[in-house]
Amino acid sequence: MTAFSHGHQFINGSYRTGTGGSFPRVNPATGAIAEEVDYASIRDLNDAVQAAASAFPAWSSLTPGERSEHLLNFAVALTARADELAAMETAQTGKTARLSSGFDIPGTIDNVNFFAGAARHLQGLAAGDYAGKSTSMVRREAIGVIGSIAPWNYPLQMAAWKVLPAIAAGNTIVLKPSELTPGTSLLFAQIASEAGLPDGVINVVVGSGQEVGEALVRHPLVKMSSFTGSTAVGRRVMAMAAESGKRVHLELGGKAPLIVFQDADVEAAAHGAVAGSTINAGQDCTAATRAYVHSSLFGAFTARVAALMETMVVGDPLLEDTDMGSLISQAHRTKVASMVDRAVAAGATVLTGGGAPDLAGAFYRPTLIVGAAQDSEIVQDEIFGPVLVVLPFETEDQAIALANDSAFGLAASAWTSNVHLAMRAGAEIEAGCVWINEHIPIVSEMPHGGFKSSGFGKDMSSYSFEEYTNVKHVLISHDTDIHKEWQNTVFKQR
Ligand code: NAD
């Protein structure tokens, strides 16, 4: 990819070459070096934050309608470049072209369109007379410069989920994408600029997490840090933000359970489990990773899932017939393979998969594991690969308790034809999203975000405005009497 011959930093409306060294980015599906990515120095980062701070007064002063119009123009421009964005997303992640063009890019464009509309509904409480002769109103105000940090699994969508609610609400932003996948975030900012968004509203800096990421979180002009990534780094971001009492928004890891109750449609549940565990090669924070299946269905479910997994075509992500592309890197594949190997050493059995096909890239087969203990690493820790572990249960109480026996709480699904059980699962499973007879679908109108170690704060939906706005109470007295009765509690009226 030579698209960024003018550098990998998008600051104040134009590209520049970072002055903080460089890094050879590898195409994970081929193992070949794709490009040399320049890194931002702290000086480059300061320039980006300054550009965002300078753009803030004018951008936050636009009417919601004017910001909305910018976003609508942006959506049209993105649609015109959808093929280019999809090709770049596949080239940098190794995910299938089918997923990039059918999910990542249209999902992002839909988000832009959603926030173009939502920008006009940034409402506070209109008015109310709560304290005698006075009227209260609530203003929702932009916060200022937002520093956002995104992961590599859905690079464009994760960037969009951070950028869009922030700018729709009147903030400006400095985004640091993962250094492994900077391309589509840069192109996103470039297209926004070409569509007419003012310089400095969206800035992208590319660099390492330890240096540029930490400096972005700590920067005094950055008023809020929003982060999507691993739980370990999210905790570090929170600790750094605490040094200055900075606001944080954290979307962290997941370990989604999938419960198959006794009355479930096994065929539907098996299809849902295969798609839900292998989407994006399992590198999805909401991927189905632990299935709890009623003991009466255990054999039928595992046999069907194994059979379906074995039909999956793993390989060249550009081919239309390929179902699953590569993982993000050889190092990540080693991590996934090691976790599977340790599960087997601890007594689990691999029913299918459990290894890599004979290909140059970082591929790993869809893998089904049984016989693992509930407290084992493979059931408790995030694996972020195409691996599903299945455990049996006997009672409904037990199924829900096992699903909740996790540090994480991002997403979950329950499969049943009993409406009472569906409602119970929806209420009792500790997760930010519970699907019934589905696993994975997300929509721009609905919030996405976790409980417990999966973080807090919501992406997408108008709930995300809670994160990116300050809520202010303005009280206007219309009492013309100089002597206010409440003042007697402080000093007697004279
Ligand atoms: P990661 O935590 O390693 O990196 C995420 C980002 O943080 C990258 O841009 C990285 O450069 C940066 N970073 C690393 N160290 C940093 C530091 N010390 N200070 C500041 N920034 C730092 O995560 P990853 O491997 O890129 O992504 C996978 C993780 O993301 C998984 O845990 C997955 O569950 C999670 N994720 C969560 C959601 C969600 O919505 N909850 C969505 C997608 C991915």
SSE layout:
Layout: E1 9-11, E2 14-16, E3 22-26, E4 33-38, H1 42-61, H2 64-80, H3 82-93, H4 97-118, E5 134-142, E6 145-149, H5 155-168, E7 172-176, H6 183-194, E8 202-204, H7 209-218, E9 222-228, H8 231-242, E10 247-251, E11 256-260, H9 266-278, E12 288-294, H10 298-311, H11 330-345, E13 349-352, E14 367-370, H12 377-380, E15 387-393, H13 396-404, E16 408-409, E17 411-415, H14 419-428, E18 433-436, E19 451-452, E20 455-456, H15 464-468, E21 469-477
Parallel strand pairs: 6-7, 6-9, 7-8, 9-10, 11-12, 11-17, 12-15, 14-15, 17-18
Antiparallel strand pairs: 1-2, 3-4, 5-21, 10-20, 13-14, 16-19
The structure holds nicotinamide-adenine-dinucleotide.
